[in-house]
């Protein structure tokens, strides 16, 4: 008998991701995820920038320009990256980089600092174009990268308990609002918690004085001055801590959420935007980790192919925030710190749960990977930062070394 061959038209083909349509894909939950991500960025990381500006003796105009540059630069990169890749690309300013500047910025002129920022951005472009970081991370067992993510996120969840003790009505109300939201409207649980917390803060009079000065923030163009001292003292430390402490965890978050990020495009793009906005005070832009966990989670949208809207909305809010930088700084100064702590914690609760689950899955790597993942988690949670490099990097390194030492290799014949 002759074997019948099925017609070509009936041959099964693997189904790819559905075609995206921005108008159809927009959802309230994704927009809220973007807003919460920006709110958390302004509530915490922005304070590090302001402290660095104060330590460096910058003028109010230069400080406002710096905030404008990192906000608008992050926004442009988020919007373009998310539109091009149809993934929630989250770009933000370097937090450990700003921390480094707290101790080094005062030793150089603002023009020398701008020159160093440009050099750092160019180095980021070169490294991004090689795809080296993405290649290295692809070789790391997934449970270890999940442990890094868990170590980054868990401190936010842990701090919620202290916030509730400090302000039981406001922070406690946020927790209750979140839990009720998870029970009755899971996609909008964070929005419900935020709304309830805001109402309770206003009713109890816990908000501070709103010192808001109306008007748009106008950036200042600052010409660079390149010196060996500023390159060695600012550019190189800034580059190292940004790549190790921010871009690597940012890629880990993307992979842990089920995405295959185009690391060359993302890192090169963020480097190019960093160079452009460096002339207005932007020190360094990179892939975000904590806020990315919000945008890439199921709470942003159950369909991961529609979560890119959260990246776009994050970018839009960043751009708005950049031009309203002075007003936003005044507003967030009036919001009780425990409220922001509790909001960040509940927003990251589900991603923390998922990463902890992934930490305990062997996934074909053998029992040794579990122990290596625990080492990774412990070191990442420790908060140690030798040489100004955050604990997430050292946790990743410790996990890789532990796994290499403990895994069993097959015996040669």
UniProtKB/TrEMBL annotation:
Residues 1-20 are annotated as: Disordered. GO terms for cellular component: plasma membrane. One of its GO terms (molecular function) is benzoate transmembrane transporter activity. The keyword Transmembrane helix applies. InterPro entries: Benzoate_Transporter. Keywords: Membrane, Transmembrane, Transmembrane helix. Residues 1-14 have a biased composition (Low complexity). The chain crosses the membrane at residues 28-53, 65-84, 91-110, 116-137, 149-176, 188-210, 222-245, 265-296, 308-335, 384-406. It holds the Pfam family BenE. The keyword ATP-binding does not apply. It comes from the Bacteria. PANTHER family: INNER MEMBRANE PROTEIN YDCO, MFS FAMILY TRANSPORTER, PREDICTED SUBSTRATE BENZOATE. This is Benzoate membrane transport protein. It comes from Raineyella antarctica.
């Amino acid at each position: 008998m002759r074997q019948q061959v099925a017609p070509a038209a009936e041959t099964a083909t693997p189904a790819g991701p559905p075609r995206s349509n921005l108008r159809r894909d927009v959802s309230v939950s994704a927009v809220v995820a973007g807003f919460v991500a920006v709110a958390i960025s302004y509530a915490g990381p922005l304070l590090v920038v302001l402290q660095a500006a104060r330590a460096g003796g910058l003028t109010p105009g230069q400080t406002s320009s710096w905030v404008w540059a990192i906000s608008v630069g992050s926004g442009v990169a988020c919007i373009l990256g998310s539109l091009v890749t149809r993934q929630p690309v989250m770009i933000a300013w370097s937090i450990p980089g700003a921390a480094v500047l707290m101790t080094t910025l005062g030793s150089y002129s603002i023009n020398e600092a701008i020159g160093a920022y440009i050099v750092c951005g160019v180095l980021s472009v070169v490294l991004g174009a090689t795809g080296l970081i993405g290649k290295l991370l692809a070789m790391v067992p997934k449970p270890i990268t999940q442990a890094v993510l868990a170590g980054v996120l868990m401190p936010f969840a842990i701090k919620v308990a202290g916030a509730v003790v400090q302000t039981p009505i406001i922070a406690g109300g946020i927790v209750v609002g979140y839990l009720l939201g998870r029970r009755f409207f899971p996609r909008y649980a964070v929005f419900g918690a935020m709304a309830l917390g805001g109402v309770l803060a206003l009713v109890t009079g816990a908000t501070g004085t709103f010192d808001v000065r109306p008007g748009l923030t106008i950036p200042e163009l600052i010409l660079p001055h390149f010196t060996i001292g500023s390159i060695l003292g600012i550019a190189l430390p800034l580059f190292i801590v940004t790549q190790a402490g921010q871009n690597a965890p940012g890629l880990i978050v993307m992979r842990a959420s089920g995405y295959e990020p185009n690391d060359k495009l993302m890192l090169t793009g963020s480097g190019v935007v960093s160079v452009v906005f460096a002339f207005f005070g932007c020190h360094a832009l990179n892939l975000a980790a904590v806020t990315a966990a919000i945008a890439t989670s199921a709470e942003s949208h159950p369909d991961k192919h529609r979560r890119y809207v959260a990246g776009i909305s994050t970018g839009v809010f960043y751009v708005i925030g950049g031009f309203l930088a002075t007003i936003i700084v005044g507003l967030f100064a009036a919001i009780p710190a425990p409220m922001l702590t509790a909001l960040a914690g509940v927003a990251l609760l589900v991603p923390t749960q998922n990463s902890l689950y992934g930490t305990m899955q062997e996934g074909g790597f053998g029992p040794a990977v579990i122990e290596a993942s625990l080492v990774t988690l412990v070191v990442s949670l420790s908060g140690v930062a030798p040489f100004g490099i955050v604990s997430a990097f050292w946790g990743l390194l410790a996990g890789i070394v532990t796994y290499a030492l403990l895994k069993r290799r097959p015996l040669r014949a």
